[in-house]
Amino acid sequence: MSKLIDFYFDFISPYSYLAHKKIINLDKRNIFNYKAVLLGGLHNLGGITAPAFNERKMKNMMNDCVLIAKKNNIPFKWNEKFPINSLNLMRGFLLISDNQKNRYFDACFNAYWQNNIDISKDENVKKILTDCKISYDFFSSGCKDQNIKEKLKKLTNDAFNKDIFGAPTFVINDKIFWGQDRLDYALDEYNL
Question: Per 3-state DSSP, what percentage of the chain is helix, strand, and coil (rounded to 5)?
Fold first, then answer.
């Protein structure tokens, strides 16, 4: 059996949310290594204009996500505050303990892509953290910690250096599978 599948994600990515929900529906979460990247940083490194900043791409992406969610029975609502700055949320994922990550991950994704909550607002982040039993003071100060800042920057740069340019991206056996629609291919590679 192969090692874990690396799953590069950002909370701002609706396709990362959809891929994550597919993974949960398949009961396969335990074979994935969730790797935080800052999607905006990845796009900047690659000189990529995100679909959010192109009216035609944005319209198609919104429709596409609704179709994927419906086809896969995934609760989904396009967030009215898209896009947001996910920097502290991504740093927070790196900061918290491993036994808190799944709950935090689900809470952030569900709030943003299921419940249409602006997770860039402090009061909404506080509620998520309270629900996850994470201290807001710990989280807030930790997101400013230079080591955490550098860790997210390094993960994003490392992803770019592996030719990863978007989220979600799955990597297994040094093969890259980009997009939620490539999840099955990554799982096939895992099962080789």
Answer: 60, 10, 30
